[in-house]
Amino acid sequence: MYKISRVAALIGALLPASVIAQSIEGTVNNSDGEAIIGALIRVEGSTSKTVTDQAGRFVIDNLNAGKNEIHLAVSGYAHLHQDIELAEDDVKTVNLTLSRSPIEVIDIVSTPIHMSVMESAAPVNVIAGETLRRQQAATLGDTLEKLPGVQTNFHGNVASTPIIRGLSGPRVLIAQNGLDVSDVSRVGPDHSVAAESSTSQQIEVLRGPATLFYGSGAIGGVVNVVDGRVPTDSTTRGEWLIENSSVNDQKLGSFNLTTGSDSFGFYADGYWRESDDYEVPVSPESDHDDHDDHDDHDDHDEDHEEHDFVVENSAEESSGFTLGGSYLFDKGYVGVSVEQFNREYGIPGHTHGEEEDDHDHEDEAAEENVFADLEQTKVQILAEYNLDNDWVKQINLRSGFTDYEHAEIEAGETGTLFENETQELKLDIIHSTFSDWNGGVSLHYKNSEVAAQGEEAFTPPSKAQTIALALMEEKHMGDLLLQFGLRVERVTLEASDVLLPTLEAHDHEEETDDHDHDHEDEHDHDEETNITRVFAADHEFTPVSVSAGLVWEFTEGYNLGLSISRSQRAPSASELLSFGPHIGTGSYEVGALFALHQEEDETHIGLTEQNIDLETANNIDLTLRKSQGDLAFVFNVFYNQVDNYYYQADTGLFAESGHDHDHGAEEEADEHSDELPVYIFQTDDVILHGFEAQLAWQATNEFKATVFSDMVRARLKDGGNLPRTPPMRFGTQLSYENQNLSAHLDITRYQEQDKITAAETVTDGYTMVDASISYDIPMFNQDIAVYLEGNNITDTEARVHTSFIKDVAPRPGRNISLGVRGYF
Amino acid sequence: MKKSFQLNLLTVTISSLLLYGCGDAETTIIEKDPIIVIDEDDDHDDHDHDDDDHADDEYTIESMGRLAILSGDSNEAAIVDLDDNELLDTFSLIHDSNSLTASADFRFAIVASRSNDYVGFIDGGMWREDHVAHLHDYEQAPEMNHLELTGSRPTHIVKHDGHTAVFYDGDADTSTPAAVQVLSDTDISTEITDIPTLNYTTNMHGVAEPMGEYLLSTVRRDDAESTSAAKILPDQVAVYHLHDDEYEQEQVLDVLCPDLHGAAQNGHYVMFGCADGILAAHAHDDEYEAEKILNIASLDGLRIGSIYGHEESETFIGVASGHEAGEAILIKIDPENSEMEALEWQPEIDASPVSYAFAYEGEAFLVLDSKGFLNILTAHDHDGEVHWELAGSVDISEEDVSTMPEGMSFSMTVAQNDHYVYVSDPIAQHVLQVHVDDMEIEGDIELDFAPASITWLGIAEEGHEEDHDH
């Protein structure tokens, strides 16, 4: 258990004895009259904050005369908002009572306006502390998948990205401390996210359009991984963890540490993880994949008991470390951090040809395996300056420089090399409270140069630049909280060499045709001329996003949130400019700059005649919450109409993958094995709607039960489904926590997904059962916890509908992890 | 009251923003020159370089190449696109009296002006890079390169396997010693500053043959020791090895070569012309071995002063001539068997050869003469011996050759990607495209000036017969 009591005691002891000017002092209790220790008290519109001591007491001084809005937050309780009027030289004593909240409420740190699961118009989730440690996985999507409204696109344990309300890829932005993580994970499902959960402090999820805060890439939501790499104080603290998991023999070690002197803060974290191929309860290839050999399959079934099935090439090794330092002064801090992130992982499903019988030739498999070697250096400079003058309350600066490289290595040679170089600057100017309005202006600049070279360089090198100005404001008016925002962006996307090769795409029906004779021979020699057209494409977009929301506490402890937004997004380079085989998605991808043209009998791909336009999401979110008491709930419904939604449409054509086929045994393979279906990005209007529900009941001080469910329906307005839409889910989480012991049992049911596109297959439902138990052993002046976790305890076959490789890589089988973690 | 007013204001603001909220999108697309690729699989079934075909196809360019043409009328050079015979650009040259040749990988036209101590480079705009996963071809507008070499009296420019060696004779009058500089096309394109250089201590009319990081270059000994009749001509050959931009002498070949003039190599042998025969050097273990192939009687007292070689030809062709035009004897030199032999075919008495060259892939030897005939000699194997025989002559000029402008001549250059030779005709002011195998004129590039000399530029393709496993 994370004990902040010592910190609180320390701060309490340091409280000044004399108070000057206006101040508030008081105590914080729970409804049973017990003192609440370690509650954080902040005053809105100023930077004053303090923490209650062991008797629940606090003092805040140096306040302005007039109305002071104070905000109380502590784990396990609902946050409290209270206005306190102060006269000149007034010292007011208040007794505040916090109500218990079975749903954990943690504030989002990276937005200029106040957001939490209970208090904002737009829906958010935050996981932190022990919950985060319990749910953290090697990949980000898998870490967050237990949050309502968030699922993973599970890519064989080695890569995953969160899917928020059915949206992912270029629509969900992954940020680290509020800055773009700057990898290439938005482009391919087999590209890992360059952010690590095991060293993070909290992970924030903004569900639904969040372009307001983060720009174009955030039209479907944002995941922000927060850590303390630039320390904002120098209190010595830290945490470490060692864990071993059975299903893939994963070994994980991680730590983070903050320390420093009066005016300097120092931070370090690091982690190392290594895992083997993971075990699965059944043969990794699913039944409906192979049409030809059903007989073979019966054999497989008989063999079940004897085999230890593994998903080949799903091993991973990663490590990273971060160093940060900051200068702390009265009115803020300025600091810099450097992170080195390394990851090497196999890409399951990234094999070619014979997938039928992988049990008996492991030598060959080793030869053809493709693995990714990812490396990133990330420098962040974070600063905060609290001016507290009449106009400006605070200036907040974040800037980042990242250099990312990711090689896909096949048979010892780099097949494709992806690079991303990004510079980013975010400047938030938070104004002083003005007619009860709190908020600020945010300036944002981002410049990314992305390039890919090699076989899978399906997107030409491009340079994207964003300049944005945003305004966010909120105001409490009695029972009402108003929040609104506006953002205007200028996005330019430049690519000097967009290639349009002559695609030898063909229909599989006309297979008898000899390909050679229908190509024109312009030369006298028997040569076949292929012309690759080259374009310089410059795009300039001006997306504008507006949102307005209100939270109405219609009766004590209950509130109703409404959020309406219109968000625009500039399409990404891969959506516009692609042309080439993408093994990660198993398709030949063609960007929206191009379109199929039909001329008599001939189909060819040329420039599109459509205008390249912005994608616009019109979203309504309605939230009903009960935030206090032994029973709490959050119900969300949303309706999101996205006009001009960029998506990949199947053309029915096939093209050569252009992939190296060094390996033998090709005769056995399907003759189309090196051909990929051609998908073209096109736009249509799309409707997404659904709900998220979460209900928690604190039965006793120790025992808590939570039930949750979520669902999204994603369809084209004119009929038809979107691919890889998460299935409906519901589940329960039971927990027991006392002084030393905590135990959790999570049961989640994933329903069958039968709302599919023509190219997909129905995915069966399954039930995942996870359990964990943790025991605290205080020793060596540390809080040490030993824990045992079990995942997929029933060892069920679970195929993830949202995964591109669901037919070759189901979820891991039963896994037992044993670990020790400590806090100091 | 105040509050509700503010709320109204807010509502108005939001609704007006919603109206404005339809953002703007603008796309500009400019089509550039396409990349044209020929699928090699279709015409050479026996090709077994397998996997990178696909990768290559996307990045390689199929083009006839380009032609650099030095004007005889003015100090200008023109670059012509051979795919459509269009003039791409003309470049004013600093000096007159220039010579023209191509760089080792045929990307650059090298313009040298001996008397002005100047060597300049025009980027022909076509080149190939090896991107490991694939070969990547570029096709860009020609442009003047900023690199200038200013060694004293640049004379013989020799290229081999990616390296161009410029031999500066130096100048006895100013006591400037001779020197050699070696450049790759990449060096030229990056305008390298530290050019690998061999510095001599004395001037000479020499020649250097680049061999990777080695250089076989001539040595002029003290006049007292020298066996040369004309002391400015060297009489020894030494092997130099590159260390940090400087060539250091490693070995002096133990065979003397008095009055050394002319050199050639074919990858195995490096040949130097001497007064008494041919010095043939070849690498053996880490050392170079040399031997002399002595002059034969049919040379009639003349010596071989020019030698031509080709990677794919085992035999060299030497040319012995007096200083008077018209007397040229063509000699086959066979270093394997250490022998030389006069060719059966010899130039006619009144038709003095003006240009010699091996054809693409070395299967033919071309002799262009002053009467306007392109004589094509081909190699035949008789009992294990190579014989060069005349396959035919192409009459490339309908003009009265006696009207040839003063100081000009026909000139030719061999394409390095197909069986074409280009012949320039200063009288008719055009360049003819001749197919070597078919011995036919297939094209004609009209010019509005008299071409003094021409050289082919572009992406050289390796010969197909060659066994290239990669």
What can you see in these coordinates?
By secondary structure, chain A is mostly beta strands. In chain A, the strands form 7 sheets. Chain A has a 22-stranded antiparallel barrel. Chain A has a 5-stranded mixed β-sheet with strand order 8-13-14-11-12. In chain A, strands 3-2-5-6 form a 4-stranded antiparallel β-sheet. Chain B has 2 domains: 36-89 and 351-464, no CATH class; 151-343, Neuraminidase, CATH 2.120.10. Helices cover 7% and strands 48% of the residues of chain B. In chain B, strands 4-3-2-35 form a 4-stranded antiparallel β-sheet, with no helix packed on it. Chain B has a 4-stranded antiparallel β-sheet with strand order 5-6-7-10. In chain B, a hairpin with a 5-residue loop joins β27 (353-358) and β28. Chain B is globular and about 85 Å long. Mean pLDDT of chain B is 83; it is low at 1-21, 39-56 and 464-470. Chains A and B meet through β24, β27, β29 and β30 of A and α1, β1 and α2 of B. β29 (528-542) of chain A pairs antiparallel with β1 (24-39) of chain B.
Sheet with the most strands: spatial strand order of chain B: 4-3-2-35
Instruction: Please count the beta strands of chain A (DSSP E, at least 2 residues each).
Output: 44
Helical element count of chain B? Answer: 3
**How many strands appear in the DSSP assignment of chain B?**
35
Q: Classify the beta-strand content of chain A into a percent band.
A: over 45%
CATH topology (fold) name of the largest domain in chain A: Maltoporin, Chain A
Low-confidence stretches of chain A: 7-19, 289-306, 352-367, 510-527, 659-672
Which CATH class of the largest domain in chain B is shown?
A: Mainly Beta
Determine the CATH superfamily of the largest domain in chain B.
Answer: Kelch-type beta propeller
State the assembly state of the protein chains.
heterodimer
Can you tell me the CATH architecture of the largest domain in chain A? Beta Barrel
Calculate Rg of chain B over CA atoms: 27 Å
Considering DSSP H and I runs of 4 or more, what fraction of the residues of chain A is helical?
A: under 10%
User: How much is the average pLDDT of chain A?
Assistant: 83
Shape of chain A: globular
CATH superfamily of the largest domain in chain A: TonB-dependent receptor, beta-barrel domain
Structural class of chain B: mainly beta
Distance linking N and C termini of chain A:
11 Å
Arithmetic mean pLDDT of chain B? 83
In this structure, how is the largest beta sheet of chain A organized?
22 strands, antiparallel, barrel
Architecture (CATH level 2) name of the largest domain in chain B? 6 Propeller
